[in-house]
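Project outcomes to date are best conveyed with an example. Our students and postdoctoral researchers have been running inverse folding experiments weekly, and each run begins with a structure described purely in C-alpha cells. The record below, which covers 131 residues, was selected by the lab manager from last quarter's runs and is presented without edits.
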C-alpha cells in the first residue's frame, strides 16, 4: 500500500535541474492569498498552489518587481480556514508566481502549519480500493 510522506520526511524526488533542494515535502493545495510588502499600499493577490513546512508557491498574474528576500505579510485561506504569517520572496517568475519561504520567530514551524500539512496529507491519500 502506497502512503503519502510524513511531514517530517525529507523529499527524495529529483527535478530536471538535479536533486530536489527543498527541505520538506510539498503538498498541493488551493486557496486565495494576499501578500503585502511594507512600502506598498496594494496587496499582491493570487492563489496558493502548494505548501510545505518551509514555504509555499503562489500563482499570480501580477507583475511585481521585488528583490529576492523581500519580506511580505502573507494572508491565505485553505479549507475555508484563514492563516497569516511572514515570508520572504525566494524566486519570482514574472507572470506566473513566486516561491516564498516562511519566517518564524523561533525558527520552528508553527503548530497551525503542521496541523494544516497533516490535513493536506490526509486529503491527498486516495481511499482504499474495495476488495
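After processing, the design step wrote out the following sequence:
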Amino acid at each position: 500500500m502506497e502512503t503519502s510522506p510524513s511531514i517530517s520526511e525529507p523529499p527524495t524526488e529529483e527535478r530536471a535541474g538535479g536533486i530536489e533542494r527543498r527541505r520538506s515535502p510539498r503538498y498541493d493545495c488551493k486557496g486565495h492569498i494576499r501578500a503585502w510588502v511594507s512600502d506598498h499600499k496594494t496587496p499582491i493577490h493570487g492563489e496558493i498552489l502548494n505548501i510545505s513546512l518551509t514555504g509555499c508557491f503562489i500563482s499570480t498574474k501580477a507583475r511585481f518587481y521585488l528583490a529576492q528576500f523581500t519580506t511580505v505579510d502573507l494572508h491565505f485561506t485553505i479549507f475555508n480556514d484563514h492563516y497569516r504569517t511572514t515570508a520572504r520572496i525566494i524566486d519570482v517568475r514574472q507572470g506566473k508566481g513566486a516561491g516564498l519561504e516562511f519566517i518564524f520567530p523561533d525558527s520552528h514551524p508553527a503548530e497551525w502549519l503542521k496541523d494544516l500539512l497533516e490535513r493536506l496529507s490526509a486529503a491527498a491519500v486516495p481511499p482504499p480500493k474495495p476488495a
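The chain has one domain: 30-124. Residues 1-19 have pLDDT under 50 and may be disordered. The training component of this project remains on track.
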